[in-house]
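Inverse folding, one chain.
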């Protein structure tokens, strides 16, 4: 998948599949959500970071993604979600 350097996060970020994102989220890693037509370091829409320990254990990954899709995805911004993670979290 796509790997690049993020100026906002000051680290290397990689795009991942939804299955990998769900597993990493359940393990406690921070996942970044972005609409599919938007670039990661975008002026108009910043990626949303989700972390299970910060959000509490009552929110599931599917609920968070459905809420993000409802409020942030459109024909202009993209109808799908792209999932990103820091490369340092992938290696652990």
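Residues assigned per position:
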């Amino acid at each position: 998948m796509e790997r690049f350097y993020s100026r906002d996060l000051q680290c290397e970020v990689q795009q991942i599949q939804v299955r990998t994102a769900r597993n990493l989220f359940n393990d406690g890693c921070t996942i970044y959500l972005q609409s599919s037509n938007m670039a990661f370091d975008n002026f108009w829409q910043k990626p949303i970071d989700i972390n299970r320990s910060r959000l509490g254990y009552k929110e599931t990954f599917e609920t968070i993604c459905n809420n993000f899709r409802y409020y942030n995805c459109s024909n202009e911004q993209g109808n799908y979600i792209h999932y990103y993670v820091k490369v340092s979290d992938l290696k652990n």
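Helices lie at 18-27, 52-55, 61-72, 87-91. The chain has a mean pLDDT of 90.
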